[in-house]
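Work package 3, deliverable 3.1, input record:
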Amino acid sequence: MATGRSNRKTRKRRAPPGTAPGTLVADPGASQPTIQLIAYGPGSFEEVAIKEIEDLGSLIDKHPVAWINVVGLANLDLIRSLGEMFDLHGLALEDVVNVHQRPKVEEYADHLFIVTRMIEGGAPPTTEQVSMFLGERFLLTFQETPGDCFEPVRERLRKGRGQIRGRLADYLAYALIDAVIDGYFPVLEACGDRLDALEDEVMARPSEGQARRVHEIKRELLVLRRTIWPHREMLNGLTRESSPNITDQTRLYLRDCYDHTIQLMDIVETYREIATGLVDVYLSSVNARMNEVMKVLTIIATIFIPLSFITGLYGMNFDDTASPWNMPELKWYWGYPVVLGLMAAAAFGMLYYFYRKGWILGGGNDSSR
Amino acid sequence: MATGRSNRKTRKRRAPPGTAPGTLVADPGASQPTIQLIAYGPGSFEEVAIKEIEDLGSLIDKHPVAWINVVGLANLDLIRSLGEMFDLHGLALEDVVNVHQRPKVEEYADHLFIVTRMIEGGAPPTTEQVSMFLGERFLLTFQETPGDCFEPVRERLRKGRGQIRGRLADYLAYALIDAVIDGYFPVLEACGDRLDALEDEVMARPSEGQARRVHEIKRELLVLRRTIWPHREMLNGLTRESSPNITDQTRLYLRDCYDHTIQLMDIVETYREIATGLVDVYLSSVNARMNEVMKVLTIIATIFIPLSFITGLYGMNFDDTASPWNMPELKWYWGYPVVLGLMAAAAFGMLYYFYRKGWILGGGNDSSR
Amino acid sequence: MATGRSNRKTRKRRAPPGTAPGTLVADPGASQPTIQLIAYGPGSFEEVAIKEIEDLGSLIDKHPVAWINVVGLANLDLIRSLGEMFDLHGLALEDVVNVHQRPKVEEYADHLFIVTRMIEGGAPPTTEQVSMFLGERFLLTFQETPGDCFEPVRERLRKGRGQIRGRLADYLAYALIDAVIDGYFPVLEACGDRLDALEDEVMARPSEGQARRVHEIKRELLVLRRTIWPHREMLNGLTRESSPNITDQTRLYLRDCYDHTIQLMDIVETYREIATGLVDVYLSSVNARMNEVMKVLTIIATIFIPLSFITGLYGMNFDDTASPWNMPELKWYWGYPVVLGLMAAAAFGMLYYFYRKGWILGGGNDSSR
Amino acid sequence: MATGRSNRKTRKRRAPPGTAPGTLVADPGASQPTIQLIAYGPGSFEEVAIKEIEDLGSLIDKHPVAWINVVGLANLDLIRSLGEMFDLHGLALEDVVNVHQRPKVEEYADHLFIVTRMIEGGAPPTTEQVSMFLGERFLLTFQETPGDCFEPVRERLRKGRGQIRGRLADYLAYALIDAVIDGYFPVLEACGDRLDALEDEVMARPSEGQARRVHEIKRELLVLRRTIWPHREMLNGLTRESSPNITDQTRLYLRDCYDHTIQLMDIVETYREIATGLVDVYLSSVNARMNEVMKVLTIIATIFIPLSFITGLYGMNFDDTASPWNMPELKWYWGYPVVLGLMAAAAFGMLYYFYRKGWILGGGNDSSR
Amino acid sequence: MATGRSNRKTRKRRAPPGTAPGTLVADPGASQPTIQLIAYGPGSFEEVAIKEIEDLGSLIDKHPVAWINVVGLANLDLIRSLGEMFDLHGLALEDVVNVHQRPKVEEYADHLFIVTRMIEGGAPPTTEQVSMFLGERFLLTFQETPGDCFEPVRERLRKGRGQIRGRLADYLAYALIDAVIDGYFPVLEACGDRLDALEDEVMARPSEGQARRVHEIKRELLVLRRTIWPHREMLNGLTRESSPNITDQTRLYLRDCYDHTIQLMDIVETYREIATGLVDVYLSSVNARMNEVMKVLTIIATIFIPLSFITGLYGMNFDDTASPWNMPELKWYWGYPVVLGLMAAAAFGMLYYFYRKGWILGGGNDSSR
């Protein structure tokens, strides 16, 4: 089933236990890499698709800032070469390839290693790891698959809009992280819309599948929380720690980004509480309906079972010729009308009892209970 | 339905992901702005509706303190001009326009940026963002729509009551925040009144809609908590951080205001726990009623079904002429009375059994169970 | 209803939002004040009911320590005069009159402002605010209504028992706070006794009202926790902060008092968990009883409904003269006894089935399920 | 009932509110004291039952370390004398007599005051307060009743086993605390055994009393947690604070003891979660059984009630001579067999419907629901 | 039963309370020890099975780093000798033998004592204690039983792969800890697979045993959490504390390992929440099914019970010759057809009522409820 399949996606695949640290093991489903270089400065801009890694060096040196974006993680040699070129730590490279990292920031000698996870819509939503190495003048990013939420940032770079071309690599990193974080809002909104619709539905008409759907939404929120929470920590780290690679000016922007993660957590937690409350509402609706069903059964059965007994009584075949005591009622002049009246009285008595109990016609009063 | 619509209001609308930071995007439903200036000092007071922003400068300089209140956020040019005039940061201005901020305080070079949310009654209650820029001698506030809870503060300024005219802008900011916080109390009280009424009702007579109403109250409390909590943090920040824009004297007043937010959180949490407990009471009432319904059905059915069987037995048409074994009872002299007695005995036996079980007439004792 | 009324008492009444800070607004139900002065030293003791506030000054100067106790908060002028005499802050005076403060301690220039809440028995228990201003040589206390738990302290002062007369005002403040805290123990014990009784009852014989009573006890515990918790914080503050008004010796005593609040919180939390567990026990008892009711119904109905069908079958009036196929059984020699035997066999078969299921006579075994 | 009685034991008895601090009030049930002195050094050992407190001084001076163990707290004069002899603080002495203290450590001028609680088996388990005053060369302990878990320590002292005789009083204190803490393990294991047995039982065959027994186990765990938790804090305090009375060497041993309390808390929390989960399992078992009962009733009733209707139909006595429309079926040649066939068809139709629903014989498939 | 037995394994066996600290008591089930020495340096490697402990010294001195691995803890003399040889603290040795320690790190004069727990698959999973003493140039490890997850590390040592031979003992310790931690991932994945399968099953077709299976999975997760959590603390300790035995380079690797424990905790917590949500889904499915069963019963009974009453009515034997009022209907010309029509009308009326209620054929509308 679709649910089961998607669940399995949340599980981690990794190198077998005991493997040497820093060993790069490509994910079986990884794509072949393409490299895009965007190098720019206040007055310059160049966007090149890199074929040979040797071309990179000279291009980078020409511009104040270089953004090297690698899409696809299947070619381990390429990743190792880049690691050597930018002097990256083996453990960080291992984390780039092993795409199940939690968002985090790690400080190395002359660069920061940042892991974020880009959300992609769908039910349930999935995430893609984006790893970044931030030096003073370069930003090296790794994505798992083509397709990202960075196009607006590229557009700003191309058009030279805003202050982005005039700033260093840290501002570019901020812009990308901001795009990643902002990407969570529409997904969360879609989730909230479904929760709202489900809430309206549960309140209007509880039915069996709803408990499952609440469970599915709770599961998605669980996944979102698990992804957003470490982003929050990561941004907190970036904002507070005094890495020389991040300027105070950019820190102000990262603080804004951090605020967004708090807002996201807020929304996730609120949705989770609403979803939990919804289960209570659902259960109490189901209970109330069962109660109603039982009342109908009880009223009908309680009225007619005694009446049926009476009819059964006078349907017996005792021989009235054998004894004067054998069912003399059957021969009475008013026998049948009296029995009919008796049954009517019993039925109305029952109905009055149920009315007093408050089971029918909104009757009953508190003190009688 | 009304509930669904109002829920949607709690969702955030914002600039599309990847937009450059500091980009002002007007909310589609924003109102056209009006500007009100209240400038004052210990001995002076002036209240002017500003038409042209150029008029502002000279008016502000005439008085020790100036409060510029902008109502309506549709005119981005105006907001940008004010930003330039008071040297405000782009990110802060973005937050002014994007009216879904959590309450917070941010320190900039020479001013504080404070976001609060003003509560408005109604079911469910809604909030309106009030953004403040606090300099030493000016307070610049932005509201979304006309209508606020600041009239008593304006009245105190006009009449020169209390110490407010003799103090700097930080005291004015305190007075406004205090008015915002105090506005939560009546809303929370109304919520508590409804909870009390619902509690009395659930205890007196549980009915289906109550679970939904508890859920709605819990949802409102969730919204209130989500708004009050960051106010608490914000005031804590204002009280503890050593911004030069806030005097020690005002800090004392802010501490008082902070106490109020603690009190608010206290009340919200208490109500939440009561509401949660109410669900238990409701469910157990529903269960108890179902139990009662089942007992009535069981007693009636258990007594009459066996009796009906007996009447059925003697309603069979076996031919007593074909064999002496075919229902000879029907011809016995005492047949009918004996059967009647048998049925009465069975009925009383059942009733006694139920009495011993404690199902009827409060009978039964613990050891018999 | 009583419950609803008492709930309303937990809500706060306060000055309308936007009122100037420090504005004294008398509670509509406040009592007219009486002032009692107890001034003492190691060798001296004087207890006077003060009529004119002017008399106070000279009396205070005569003794090392003065305790001025004001009962009733209706006379705002009096409170203002006292505020001026002892140089008290307006915000603190506002809190004295607005009797819904959480327990807290606030440090002012030369005195401490302490708020505690005195418990009063009753169901649900209510609290009364006691505000204290602690200077080096004076203690000024405000109560809402006559009647307090301080009589033993007064007695110790009058008799000169213990070390109390030889110490400064901080020790007196400790003694009063200690009396307030100790007052919570009997109230909590009474609450625990009721919980124990209810627990015994639920275990012996669940009935509908019990869920409500658990809810009421949980509500009371909620109120107690909400009152005790800030006392704990307040005492922690008094113990740790280095106010010059409190000597190290007294701090040792306050630490003891702080331990008591921890003990109180402990008991409250334990009771809360027991009460929560009790709801589970109650619900499972109700479920078990419903199960039992259903079993009785099912056994009786399942046995007799098929039997009734058989009797109905042979109660049909098909004309045996019209066809040899029309109910020839009715004429068989052994017809009636065979049908009786058939019915007995069906009944015993059912009973054996129920026995195997474990529904009757403790039968059934695990492997058969 | 036993449960109610034991609950009451967890409640605190104390001096009436307002009593002067340091007032010793003997517990009404306190035992008469006996005093045991064990004085020792690397090469010396003496164990004396003390009759007169005056004898104590000379005996103590003869040996490097003295352990004075007082069992029974009824004699307040004796306790006061000891307090004077060792210069103990009045508040600490009050805590010795008021045997409802939480475990804690308090630092006084030249000694530490330590409170621990010794567990005693039984259902529910009870605890006994052991108070210790630790000086450099003496350890003064107070127990409520004879019988303790210190015999192995005394044996080690007597035999001179291990390093205990060569160390100062702090090591002795550690050895006693260690014995107290280790005493919790068997009690907790017994509790875990009962929980395991109950778990097996609930899974095999749910019955009503189990919910109560889970509740009782949870209650015991609550009591254990409430006792173990402050021990943990107390040991943490002893390990970290720099009291001169505790050597660094002993601190290492106390850290080990602290580890044990963490382990105890771990086990208690695990058991609590298992017990909570057990309630869910129990409730779902009860629900499943009720479902099964309902299914049996519904199957039987749904099959036979329509059949009984048919038999009732042809049991009516309409006069077929009055009209050709009055029940002509009764005279048909194939009337009876056709009706029998009709009833069989109805019964099998119902059975097939139930099979499709999956109610009988494991039938039904998911897509049909 | 298997469950009960395995539970008992989680309980601790230990020395009796009061035993002297540092006393070694062998676990009754401990294996006889074998000792393996792996000594190595950048250019050398030696792997020897040690028979006599005296051989150890010379072999160790020959190589820069020595890893002495002891498997089996039954020989206490051997352990004591090793303790003397490496100057280990008695308390640490006690923890080696008492194999129920929580993972932890303790700093001693010149070595670190580290406890980890190696996971072993199976349902429920069990753990085996691995104790390590880490000096600058030696690593001494103790395992309970043969078989571990260190084979890949040994292989790396033998082959000289990676940097492991060129580093000191701290890197070896890291490699072992990393292998232990990585071993948890497959076990957790297996647990997650079972949870997924169970989730699919509960959603497709709830049945009684599922609640138990959820409970068992929750129990396993509890055990895993209890083991992983202290690993996290332990690694945090190793990363942050400034022990001279751990180089900064290795600290970087340990941070990576620490990240893995966070990931593990994340997964465990997510699974726990899913499992908890699954109980809700299960209960609401069971409730929904019960509701469906009740509806079928109610519909059938409510339709046929009144009809049966009517047939019973005309099955009575009142003597129509005794009175014109005795059941004249039986002789009416249209009597039988009219009664049939009446019954059909009653049945259709009921069906329409149920349709309006939404009980059959998806009928009913919200406003009618």
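The two ends of chain E are 50 Å apart (CA to CA).
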